[in-house]
Write a structure and sequence with these properties.
mainly alpha, Rossmann fold, two-stranded parallel sheet, Tyrosyl-Transfer RNA Synthetase, 54% helix, globular, aa-tRNA-synth_I_CS, binds tryptophanyl-5'AMP, 5 strands, Rossmann-like_a/b/a_fold, cytoplasm
Length: 334
């Protein structure tokens, strides 16, 4: 088993990233046997698709590395690195640009969402983004890719690119990866709008819980979270159509290990005035230790850089045979 996943180092690690992806990364790392390997990386090469000041970009990479380690990624057991230190990603992306079809990229909903109405004015990188993501996965022969629901389409494209490359060049070079998407927390929604996903790019910080938020901030954000005036139902089926309520119950369930049905049974008939303080307490209990580890790790840039350099060396070594195979399959002489 080869596990691989990435995260863009733009802004804070938030509860959506954590429950949708990172918590699964940690679970898979902890369940690893001797034949398995985990690769987790900061997608800094993806982050250039949106403009950022260079100093901010460097800080973001270190912030995200610290957040991942604080959340449980152990650089001694998993290969933790940043993409820019492993040029094979950019190289394979270019090779795969010969295979990926414009029609496939035109169907990517995340591009449509991110580009909005300004299609002509966004960077080419934003459009080609999913091809770099395919390169990330295929370079390492990843079998399992733990992600949130929003990355499912990119993983399907990755498989299409792999199949077409293998067929066109008559090789069995690329392994087809399977997305691993959590059932209950595949899509954590904004605290301000139950129809939008929780996201780093939402201009309102009240829309998300950041893993670095202090206890008072978490409590205030939950107090201000949008809800409806109805009490909690007896079972989760009664949450149908109540998007904000469903989201908050789902978060409480994820924090406590209860099922959404058990959460409803516990609070049945009570309003959100009673539920919200319990939710805030559960979040604080879970996140406070992560935050304190994060703050300590963030003190030492040199130590974080050393971890990423070491991880990048291991990643480059693991990626080299596949990259070589791709050049050779295409008849490119080096
Ligand atoms: P990114 O940085 O947007 O998000 C990182 C991970 O968090 C998940 N996620 C969510 N899950 C549930 N609810 C939410 N509200 C939520 N918001 C984010 C994402 O699904 C993702 O798993 N393109 C990727 C990064 C990437 C990648 C890769 C992932 C680059 N190369 C190769 C896997 C394999 C991205 O922008 O994720």
């Amino acid at each position: 088993m080869r596990v691989l996943s990435g995260i863009q180092p733009t802004g804070n690690l938030h509860l959506g990233n954590y429950l949708g992806a990172i918590r699964n990364w940690v679970k898979m790392q902890d369940a690893m046997d001797a034949d398995s390997q985990c690769f987790f990386f900061l997608a800094d090469m993806h982050s250039i698709t949106v403009h950022e000041e260079p100093a901010q970009r460097r800080a973001n990479v270190r912030d995200m590395a610290a957040a991942l380690i604080a959340a449980g990624i152990d650089p001694d057991r998993s290969v933790l690195f940043n993409q820019a230190r492993v040029p094979a990603h950019a190289e394979l992306c270019w090779l795969l640009n010969g295979t990926a079809r414009i029609g496939w990229l035109n169907r990517m909903t995340q591009f449509k969402d991110k580009a909005g109405k300004n299609r002509e004015g966004v960077s080419i990188g934003l459009y080609v983004y999913p091809v770099l993501q395919a390169a990330d996965v295929l370079l390492y022969q990843a079998t399992h890719v733990p992600v949130g629901e929003d990355q499912k389409q990119h993983l399907e494209l990755t498989r299409d690119i792999a199949i077409k490359f293998n067929t066109d060049f008559g090789v069995e070079l690329f392994t087809l990866p399977d997305p691993i998407i959590p059932k209950e927390t595949a899509r954590i929604m904004s605290l301000r709008d139950g129809s939008a996903k929780m996201s780093k790019s939402d201009p309102s910080d009240l829309s998300r819980i950041n893993l670095a938020d202090d206890d008072d901030t978490i409590a205030a954000k939950i107090r201000k979270a949008k809800t409806d005036p109805e009490p909690l139902p007896e079972t989760a089926a009664g949450l149908e159509g109540r998007t904000e309520a469903t989201n908050l119950v789902g978060i409480y369930a994820a924090m406590t290990g209860l099922t959404p049905d058990a959460v409803c049974a516990q609070f049945a008939g009570q309003g959100f005035g009673a539920f919200k303080p319990a939710l805030a307490d559960a979040l604080i209990a879970h996140l406070a230790p992560i935050r304190s580890r994060y703050i300590a790790l963030r003190e030492d840039d040199a130590a974080l850089d050393a971890i990423l350099v070491k991880g990048s060396e291991k990643a480059a070594e693991a990626a080299a045979p596949t990259l070589k195979g791709a050049y050779e399959a295409m008849g490119l002489m080096r």
